[in-house]
What we know:
Blueprint: E1 3-9, H1 16-21, E2 28-33, H2 40-45, E3 50-52, H3 59-69, E4 74-77, E5 82-84, H4 86-93, E6 101-112, E7 115-116, E8 125-132, E9 136-138, E10 147-149, E11 152-165, H5 168-188, H6 195-212, H7 220-243
Parallel strand pairs: 1-2, 1-4, 2-3, 6-11
Antiparallel strand pairs: 4-8, 5-11, 6-7, 6-8, 9-10
Helix pairs in contact: 5-7, 6-7
Amino acid sequence: MKISVVIITKNEELNIKDCIETVKWADEILIIDSGSTDRTISIASGHNTRIIADAPDSFAEKRTLSIEKVSNDWIFFLDADERATPELQKELIEFEPREGINGYILTRRNYYFGQWLRHSGVYPDKHIRLFNRKFGSVTPRLIHEGIEVTGGTAEMKGEFLHYSFRDMTHMMDKINFYSTLEAMDKFKKEKKLSKTGVFTHALSTFFRVYISRKGYKDGRGGFFISFCYAMDNFLSHLKLLKLQGKI
């Protein structure tokens, strides 16, 4: 079965080569880029890829565009900071869709500063990443967009890896970026929040991840991801109040 791999990018020169290496078996690799200013495009162009540059910044719009542009019906989405494991690669190379199954759920292993987090509520982290475009669509959200399919779904055995943060600077940059999108999404949905809630929500988020979701079992990584979730929550709500003119 022919599969098109779609990788959405923007300034991913540190990731794109390693990502492509894990899907070079694919019949088509389509790069959807949002105006990268680094070497992302030049690196990707040397690896038998098809590139669409100047795509919208919106993740949902980029994924929707890719569904329209691929050559094959079956699509596998992989982000630039993700990698297909050898087990998943073998499964995809030998892939034959089951009758009535239009989407396949894959499990993602999340790595923070090089550590695989087995707890903290981030494993198993399941997403539809392989689907038939005739029956699939992208959820129209500013952030945390996903794939919805009509018809049945099934799970694949192979997993894929997500290398979320390289270092503290990268972590803070991503938190700042995603918290802005989250604030815009909450503003659009007219979410109500008090100034006190900015702090209480952040604290409850930290303890939910670190205690309730057993982040403490992940040691230093569990503490960092709990902090990340709390900081993201704090900044998104602070930015929401700013958008609402309350601060």
